[in-house]
Amino acid sequence: MSGELPIVIVGGGVAGLATALAVAPLPVLLLCRNADGGDSASTLAQGGIAAAIGDGDDVAAHVADTLAAGAGHNDLVMVRWLCRNASGAVEWLTSLGVPFDRDSGGQLALGREGGHRAARIVHAGGDASGAAVVRSMHAQARAATHIDWRSDVDVDALLLRDGRVCGVRARDINGRQEEIQAAAVVLATGGMGALFARTSNPPGAIGSGLVLGMAAGAATRDLEFMQFHPTALDVADGHCLPLVTEALRGAGARLRRIDGSPLMDKLHAMGDLAPRDIVARQVWRALRDDGRVWLDTSGVEGDLASRFPTVHASCLAHGIDPRHAPIPVTPAAHFHMGGLSVDLEGRTTVRGLYAVGEVACNGVHGANRLASNSLLEGLLCGRRTGQHLSRLPTTPARGQHQWRQRGESLALPALVELRRSLWDAAGPVRVESTLQHALDGELLRNPTGWQARLAKQLIAAALGRRTSLGSHYRED
After folding, report:
1. Any idea where the FAD-dependent oxidoreductase 2 FAD-binding domain is (predicted)?
2. Cβ 330 vs Cβ 427: under 8 Å
3. Which residues are catalytic?
4. In the CATH scheme, what architecture does the domain 230-333 have?
5. pLDDT tens digits for 37-67?
6. Are 123 and 48 spatial neighbours (Cβ–Cβ below 8 Å)?
């Protein structure tokens, strides 16, 4: 790398990789916890990428479905931009070598998921789309001469000079500390689903980047909106649960109550493929009332093991053969629509600090994300932010410096208690008394760990929004 200060990017999932590739030719230092991005939620994504490229489909329909899923709380400019550029994102990934699934005629095979009126989900490896996308992007980034990598590190502080972020402090797995100057810092650290007792996210998705940005003074937006995926594998005493992709329902699987009756009949015009917030609440209620909800895959045509290898393997690992038995499912914290407030270029309210992907909130998802719009957002917003940064000067900042630290972490017993408290109070169905009880409890009344401080902000936001909207459902 040259003598220029690098753009420091924290996070090695789709959003971080897209940003890093687009910053060229400026130097990039990519800091991540895992060398191959295997700890990112991007890698676990099963659905794919939504793009209106099929016969009879169009961008306007994709826009309408995104707005409907988001309960109209979306930023319309961002939604139109995202949907208009979706086909270009698929073409770009194809040029990188992502092996998207194709039909017998060689055309892209399109699946359908919840909230979509048409089959418009481009996927790879059946239900292994995220892993395929990350692999191809990772290989491209590894070959890029402008990107320097540092893995097995955790960033726990941001450096500010006269109100501008201009560096980070990183610690490796042995506790060694390094202070790194930067032309700008991009947070691409993912969401906070793993702060809940049941989640589809990896263990590291606990809001670390969000708290870093907040410590630096960056404004947040829509913290109360956490999406719960309706169908994670219901494993006893599980925390990070295997996802059971929505594409199964798009292929004919049905949700059923414990007595075998259809769960979603007459509850929504789209039935089992209603938006995620609606289905998740019904699954949550049925679990509360009956103790079990099943996903019946008998209506899925073809070989389930080859069409959905990830789900098939996860079920077998827990003693369930989904070809012959229904799958027990539960809602799980899946995607945080809220985050650090950013503009179209990914700028936060603090100079020199950017955010992309799930840690950011630009309004595109509204109050509830439409299925398979997350990888799409990470790709497009990462590339847009990277292109913006590629035009910036890389000179050192001057003035008095100040470190803004994330702070001490909770001990494991307290963290386990916090997960349960968040699940009970701020899960798919919320009531004021339970939210207030959590806020008044010992963990959140005087929070000592950064995870508790973040949870307190989310619960306070949920209390403040007294009416239901999208994923934020107030039963009272």
Report:
1. 7-375
2. no
3. 276
4. Alpha-Beta Complex (3.90)
5. 556 777 777 779 999 999 999 999 999 999 9
6. yes
Residues in the chain: 476
Confirm whether pTM is higher than 0.90.
yes
Question: How does pLDDT run across 97-110, given as a tens digit for each residue?
Answer: 999 999 989 999 99
Domain ranges of the chain: 1-225+337-407, 230-333, 408-476
Q: How far apart are CA 196 and CA 336, in angstroms?
A: 12
d(CA 272, CA 246): 9
Q: Which of 128, 138, 124, 125 is nearest to 96 (CA)?
A: 138
| Burial of 343: CB neighbours in 10 Å, binned 0-12, 13-18, 19+ | middle
* Cα separation values, 52 from 64, 274, 444, Å: 12, 19, 44
**Rounded CA separation 80/100 (Å):** 24
Looking only at the bridges linking them, the beta strands covering 360-361 and 339-341 are parallel
Q: What is the token pair recorded at 222?
A: 């829509």
**Per-residue exposure over 284-322, b if at least 16 CB sit within 10 Å of its own CB, e if not:** bebbeeeeebbbbbeebeeebbebbebbbebbeeeebeb
Task: Report the C-alpha gap between 329 and 274 in whole angstroms.
Answer: 16
The CA-based diameter of the chain, rounded to the nearest angstrom, is: 68
Query: Does the 1-225+337-407 domain belong in CATH 1.10.3370.10?
Result: no
Determine contact, residues 15/351, Cβ cutoff 8 Å.
Answer: no
Which CATH class for the 408-476 domain? mainly alpha
What is d(CA 433, CA 431) in angstroms, rounded to the nearest whole number? Answer: 6
Question: What letter represents residue 377's amino acid?
Answer: E
Check the CA dihedral 173-179-181-185 and report its sign. Answer: positive
The rounded radius of gyration (Å) of the Cα atoms in the chain is 21
Provide the token pair at 176.
């060694």
